[in-house]
Amino acid sequence: MKRQKGKLREYLETIIVALLVALFVRTFVVQAFKIPSSSMEPTLLVGDHILVNKFIYGIRIPVLGIKLFEFKRPRRGDVIVFIYPKDRSKDFIKRVIATGGETVQIKDRVIYINGKPIEDPWGVYRGNPYPLPFSPKANFGPVTVPEGYLFVLGDNRDNSQDSRYWGFVPLKDVLGKAFLIYWSWDWRKGNILPRVRWNRIGKLIH
Q1: Which of 94, 160, 163, 184 is catalytic?
Q2: How many helices (H) and strands (E) does the chain have?
Q3: Is residue 162 included in any domain, yes or no?
Q4: I need a labelling partner for 64 at 20 to 30 A (CA). Which of 50, 82, 136, 170 fits?
Q5: Beta-bridge mates of residue 50
Q6: Is 177 labeled as catalytic in the residue annotation?
Q7: Cα separation of 113 and 109, whole Å?
Q8: Omega within 30 of 0 (cis) for the link into 142
Q9: In angstroms, rounded to a whole number, what is the distance separating the alpha carbons of residues 177 and 93?
Q10: One of 2, 34, 38, 39 is an active-site residue; which one?
Q11: Phi and psi of 74, rounded to 5°?
């Protein structure tokens, strides 16, 4: 009987340790997210399952919202996951376009940082029925990003709720950098096998 109790205790201890390790990894190292909308197409599709590096920008302490050991800061082009400023129960994913102290402006879909046009290989405009001068958000700013904040856009520029609509993202609310698609499927297709996007599995996020 004692032997059985000893084994049961050993199993319970193993399970508890495994759960604690999994919780630590999820909180501070890597977390999985699912893409629910088309705002980041074509970089990320609805049904993509991604991994996010949670320590690259520093270790964020939950609830307190403070960061320790800040290794680097988000920079232009990074795809980040953050707490949505308008509803802190939601996480959003967008691309960093401007950082603190930079002035950003959009003229006829061209992005200017500090008055100079930048390369924008990520932005896609499609399905917009409006001519450029009348296209919603084809023109924006100029606005200067406050220190400690980021200006972010979705890659699908005609279908993205982003900094053009609700403002800046505080650095303290950045959860991590998206780096890998580990699974992808299109639930709208009938059979199971055709749903899987095999060519996207293992794809790095740029």
Answers
A1: 94
A2: 3, 14
A3: yes
A4: 50
A5: 33, 181
A6: no
A7: 13
A8: yes
A9: 9
A10: 39
A11: -60, 145
Query: Residue with structure tokens 């709720």?
Result: 161
Q: Give residue-wise pLDDT tens across range 8-18.
A: 766 665 667 66
What are the pLDDT digits (tens) for 132-152? 555 657 789 899 999 999 999
- Residue 142: CATH number of its domain: 2.10.109.10
CA 40 – CA 34 distance, rounded (Å): 12
Does residue 153 contact residue 166 with C-beta atoms inside 8 Å? no
Separation between Cα atoms, residue 145 and residue 71, nearest integer Å:
22
Closest CA to 82 of 205, 206, 178, 173: 173
Q: Is 39 among the catalytic positions?
A: yes
**pTM listed for this prediction:** 0.81
Range of the domain at 82: 31-204
The answer to whether the beta carbons of residues 53 and 179 sit under 8 Å apart is yes
* Cβ atoms within 10 Å of 16's Cβ, excluding its own: 10
Token digits of residue 89: 């129960």
Can you tell me the distance from the alpha carbon of 71 to that of 77, in angstroms, rounded to the nearest whole number? Answer: 17
The first and second tokens of residue 145, run together, are: 């990003």
Q: Residue 121 carries which side chain, given as an amino acid letter?
A: P
194 — alpha (psi -120 to 50), left (phi > 0) or beta? alpha
In a domain, 12, yes or no: no
Amino acid letter for position 196? V
Burial code of 147-158, b = ≥16 C-beta within 10 A, e = fewer?
Answer: eebbbbbbbbbb
Confidence of residue 103 (pLDDT cuts 50, 70, 90): very high
